[in-house]
Design the sequence.
């Protein structure tokens, strides 16, 4: 077998090794099923238990009250940009916080379904930070306030939820879902494409509060309707069974091995600090994109003195088994994605490499 590298890819991204090992052990015969999880009916008792385990784990990790439903949708987080607006906006007005590339996409889709009011726009500052709550210009008549808790491309993250008063928060949490405790009761809806932090591509987790579910438009095509998906417990049609199975394993790993969200948050803080410390102590050789108070604990974005050095950095890192460090094509630079499953040792190795690279090229 070839050696596993440290994978800093932004998504699909690193998964916990114990999860991959368990999936490997169970691939041919899922315990009790006599067949692979890939081969059995989504209506079987076995798969129903897997689905239930995934939901129970997410509920336990977030300490989610009974007034919220957990759904598994297809179409990625991108379809959620549309579904949120189709189900909840529908000709009304919603506030959106514009923090970067993913917020921009959500806004675009919102505009197709109703009036979008930009409560704060980070573009003039080139998306280097998230707003402080007192900077938000919220509308009293908004049906929700949409924000992107972590901008995967720019590497900025809300340290806490924006204040929205009585207006329900709707959050694209794709790239920091289950990475830390959140004040869950502030949210009306949370969605996350699984492939950043909780599983493989092909499924998005949606958490929706009952009153928003009630309000969701009744006349939509079934697969675009939260109401229909909830009524059928995400089994209106064949769901992405394997992806849901992996989510069940990843969330079990978070509970059993990582100390839940408090434990993983501490782990994530320590990992990110290793890299930000190197940036801060480099005398300007590495320049972080994010302002310190908005730094992402999931995606560390930085520049080197010039693009040639950035290319050399990415290439040499790769030859050392540190892969996926090229920044998103739309912004350039470098990016280290260090989601829940990135081991501490991976960040130590990258921090050491960064220091060495500076010594040679600085
Ligand atoms: C990756 C990402 C998306 C898009 O996810 P898809 O599953 O590819 O549609 C949306 N929002 C954020 C914050 C992301 O990181």
Sequence:
């Amino acid at each position: 077998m070839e050696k596993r590298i440290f994978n800093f890819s932004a998504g699909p991204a690193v998964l916990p090794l114990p999860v991959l090992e368990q999936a490997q052990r169970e691939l041919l015969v899922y315990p009790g099923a006599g067949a692979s999880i890939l081969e059995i009916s989504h209506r079987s008792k076995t798969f129903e238990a897997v689905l239930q385990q995934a939901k129970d784990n997410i509920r336990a990790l977030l300490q989610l009250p009974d007034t919220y439903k957990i759904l598994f949708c297809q179409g990625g987080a991108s379809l959620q940009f549309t579904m949120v607006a189709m189900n909840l906006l529908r000709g009304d007005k919603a506030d959106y916080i514009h923090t970067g590339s993913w917020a921009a996409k959500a806004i675009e889709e919102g505009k197709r379904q109703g009036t979008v009011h930009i409560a704060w726009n980070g573009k003039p500052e080139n998306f280097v930070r998230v707003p402080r709550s007192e900077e938000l210009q919220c509308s009293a008549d908004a049906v929700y306030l949409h924000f992107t808790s972590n901008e995967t491309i720019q590497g900025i993250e809300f340290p806490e939820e924006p204040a929205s008063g009585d207006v329900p928060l709707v959050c694209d949490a794709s790239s920091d879902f289950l990475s830390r405790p959140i004040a869950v009761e502030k949210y009306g809806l949370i969605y996350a494409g699984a492939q950043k932090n909780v599983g493989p591509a092909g499924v998005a987790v949606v958490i929706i509060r009952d009153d928003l579910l009630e309000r969701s438009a009744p006349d939509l095509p079934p697969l675009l309707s939260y109401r229909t998906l909830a009524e059928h417990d995400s089994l209106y049609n064949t769901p992405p069974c394997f992806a849901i199975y992996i989510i069940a394993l990843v969330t079990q790993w978070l509970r059993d091995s990582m100390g839940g969200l408090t434990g993983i948050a501490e782990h994530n803080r320590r990992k990110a600090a290793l890299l930000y410390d190197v940036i801060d102590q480099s005398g300007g050789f590495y320049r972080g994109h994010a302002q310190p108070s908005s730094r992402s604990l999931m995606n560390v974005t930085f520049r080197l003195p010039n693009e040639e050095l950035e290319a050399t950095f990415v290439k040499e890192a790769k030859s050392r088994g540190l892969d996926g460090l090229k920044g998103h094509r739309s912004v350039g630079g470098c990016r280290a994605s260090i989601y829940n499953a990135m081991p501490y040792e991976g960040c130590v190795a990258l921090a050491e490499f960064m220091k060495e690279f500076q010594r040679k090229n600085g």
Summary: DSSP finds ten helices and 14 strands in the chain.
